[in-house]
Amino acid sequence: MARQAADEHKVPIRMLQDRLLVTIDKDSGDRRSTGGIVIPATAALGKRLVWARVEAIGPTIRSVEVGDRVLFDPDDRAEVEVRGEELILLRERDLHAVASERIEEGQTGLYL
């Protein structure tokens, strides 16, 4: 049985295989330098990875659960709009790290 988003009315989609549906964190936009200067999200600073929250996962996903935060390359993404909300479709292999509230004995909660 496929694991689905906690709020079925929000995301009425059943993900297939190793696919994830995520929303980009709101704080992934503009940044501030140590001196307080605002750096826009469009500024070219080399390759920058982005954090997102997992909204739905496919049945073969092993390392991520709905609600986890994941780190991925924004250039390797497919965008989709569901009921006016912009979501990103990724494969599990496109993830670079997972930050989770579930910390087991001997783990840090951040997998790199």
Concise summary:
The protein is mainly beta and 112 residues long. Helix content is 0%, strand content 37%. The two termini are 28 Å apart.
Structural class: mainly beta
Nearest-integer average pLDDT: 75
Tell me what portion of residues adopts beta-strand conformation.
Answer: 35-45%
Runs in which pLDDT lies below 50 for 5 or more consecutive residues are 1-9
Tell me which CATH architecture applies here: Roll
What share of residues is helical? under 10%
> Count the strands?
9
CATH topology: 10 Kd Chaperonin, Protein Cpn10, Chain O
* Largest sheet: spatial strand order: 6-7-1-4-5-8-9
Would you spell out the secondary-structure blueprint of this structure?
Blueprint: E1 19-24, E2 31-32, E3 38-39, E4 50-57, E5 69-72, E6 78-82, E7 85-91, E8 95-99, E9 110-111
Antiparallel strand pairs: 1-4, 1-7, 2-3, 4-5, 5-8, 6-7, 8-9
How would you explain this protein's 3D organization?
The protein is mostly beta strands and 112 residues long. It has one domain (19-111): GroES chaperonin (10 Kd Chaperonin, Protein Cpn10, Chain O). The chain has no helices and nine strands. The protein has a seven-stranded antiparallel β-sheet with strand order 6-7-1-4-5-8-9, with no helix packed on it. A two-stranded antiparallel ribbon has the order 2-3. Mean pLDDT is 75; it is low at 1-9.
